[in-house]
Amino acid sequence: MAFKLLFLPPLGQPGWPDQLRASAPEVRVVVAEDTESALAEIRDADAVYGTVPLELLTQAHRLRWIQAPMAGPQAGWYYPELIDHPVQVTNMREIFNDHLGAHILAFVLAFARGLQTYVPRQLRREWNTEARRVHLPESTALLVGVGGIGAETARLLAAFGIRVLGVDPRRASAPEGVTELHRPDALDSLLPQADFVICTAPETPQTQGLFSRERFGKMRKDAFFINISRGAIVSLDGLVEALRSGDLAGAALDVYEIEPLPADHPLWEMPNVLLTPHVGGEGPYLDDRRFGVLLENCRRFGSGEALMNVVDKRNWF
Questions:
Q1: Which residue segments constitute the domains of the chain, with CATH numbers given?
Q2: For the segment 251-261, what is each residue's pLDDT rounded down to a tens digit?
Q3: Paired residues of 167 in beta bridges
Q4: Catalytic positions, please?
Q5: Cβ(157)–Cβ(105) under 8 Å?
């Protein structure tokens, strides 16, 4: 079935429209250069690639599918009118699994071998062999979120002999590497078991502010906290307080409530803290993977098949 797909501005991948025309000639590809042309073209568009604000949605009389350009958009992308609209939304989840899994593993290995202690000493040219280490085959990791990223992380952690517990609201069975899978209401009872608490959950109405000062207090004092998912899930003030009070052994973050993290934020100079600037998902082949999702969903949409990566709009993921 032929259909019209509208690329909305800003077009981050200028070569994609021509690629799509060559790969899926049954799709009528239209590119909107600005808001005015988007308002005109969306009236009879069947599908859209990009972000659809309310002013465009109200003009979309045939719209049945939106391909979001990202895996987990920030709060506000799913507004009430879009949630109530019958249009299906798909996202780009699963394309970052290997890169983020490797980033998490790097944090875990760094903490296990004391690199958060040795690197500052290196900068001071200080020869001191003392550091806390974690014997991984006798350790436990708790994954908060066992989607694609969490499942890949579990596989990597299990290869080092780590016992992996998982918390997830959707997954029905434990993937490879996960010893136990629990519902979210078990989180507080699981926190005291973990040497590493790793947040791989998407930002949803339920996960915003999930890791508060109170929740950090439920973790073991010798445990490490890692977040590579979304900054809004973790209270930075709560984390700083927990680290200062000795309620946590350390933390590693790739995402933050405020980005960029302000230069005067206390986390920059805190001991036992590892920070990276929201680069955990970076790596090769991402544009190819994004285009692959779009192309496959175009094929499915045209043939009336179920789309991949369909979003529960009320939960943003």
A1: 3-94+285-315 (3.40.50.720), 97-275 (3.40.50.720)
A2: 999 999 999 99
A3: 144, 182
A4: 230, 259, 278
A5: yes
